[in-house]
Amino acid sequence: MIAEKLQDVEKNIEAAKARRRADLTDDVTLIAVTKNHDVAAMREAIDAGATQVGENRVQEAQGKYETLDRKVTWHLIGHLQTNKAKHAVKMFDLIHSVDSEHLARAIDKEAAKLGKVQDILVQVNLAHEEQKSGVEEAALRPLLDICDALPNVRVLGLMFIAPDYEDREQCRPLFRRMHEIFLAAKDIPWKTSNIKYLSMGMSHDYEIAIEEGANIVRVGTAIFGPRQY
Ligand SMILES: *Cc1c(COP(=O)(O)O)cnc(C)c1O
Questions:
Q1: Which of 56, 80, 132 to mutate to test the pocket of ligand 1 (most atoms within 8 A of CB)?
Q2: Once rounded to an integer, what is the mean pLDDT over residues 200-218?
Q3: Where are the beta strands (DSSP E) in 100-212?
Q4: Three-state secondary structure call for residue 156
Q5: Which of 42, 125, 128, 211 reaches 20 to 30 Å from 143, CA-CA?
Q6: Closest by alpha carbon to 65, among 74, 78, 57?
Q7: Rounded to the nearest 5 degrees, what angle is found at the Cα of 140, between the Cα atoms of 185 and 85?
């Protein structure tokens, strides 16, 4: 069941890639979002070919991290509280949700203690949604400048969560704008940052996101079915 749905998503990703404009040629990485699904479901997805898993809460991820007997790349996609930075840095290969100087500095400090350089993405709140994390577009460059100067943090790109529009096509202009912001950030001559990832697109809109330039998509429901809360 999970294996079949994963294959369907992979097929849809290939089809969406084929529909892209000629200037969009990046490979697309699929993150299987495993929040609220158990380790058995994670194993099933990994055995069917998933190589990347995404979790949105540090505490939930911790239990799974200790239990899961598979090698996989771990992504933190949910909001991170500064006081959980220590645990996040221990587990996650890529933290997608950095949106403040305070958090970036906390991650840097904890990574330094572990002798690690923590790869991060900066989350952008393009649609000015009050309830969502992420920096406003105007605050992005200052935060990127700060992160670029932190020795134990390395920025690899940007992350965006689209608003929950009924008609997903409404997300398209926002995805397109995010891609423009991404290209502009990529062009800046950074010291240590290596802007190469644009993480956007979920079960309902990953194909549109890919058409507009996403090269990481985060898909849960379309692979694992609805979550039980
Ligand atoms: C839950 C979640 C996803 C996956 O959502 P689905 O609609 O189940 O695909 C993607 N990104 C973030 C940040 C999430 O919290």
A1: 56
A2: 98
A3: 118-124, 153-160, 197-199
A4: strand
A5: 211
A6: 74
A7: 110
Q: Is 161 in the pocket of ligand 1 (CB under 6 A)?
A: yes
Q: DSSP code of 121?
A: E
Q: Closest residue (by CA) to atom 12 of ligand 1?
A: 77
End-to-end CA distance of the chain: 21
The percent of residues above 70 in pLDDT, for the chain, comes to 100
Is the C-alpha dihedral spanning 37, 39, 44, 46 positive or negative?
positive
Residue 201 in contact with ligand 1 by CB distance below 6 A:
no
Interatomic CA distance for residues 67 and 148, integer angstroms: 34
User: Cα dist. 159→11, 57, 81 in Å?
Assistant: 23, 17, 17
Q: What is the pLDDT of residue 229?
A: 62
- Buried/exposed code over 127-159 (b: 16+ C-beta within 10 A; e: otherwise): beeeebbbbeeebbeebbebbbebebbbbbbbb
Ramachandran region, residue 170 (left: φ > 0; alpha: ψ -120 to 50; beta: rest) = alpha
- Supply the mean pLDDT for the chain: 97
CB 77 near ligand 1, within 6 Å: yes
Secondary structure E strands in 15-144:
29-33, 52-55, 73-76, 94-98, 118-124
Distance between Cα 227 and ligand 1 center (Å): 10
Count, residues in the chain: 229
* pLDDT value of position 46: 98
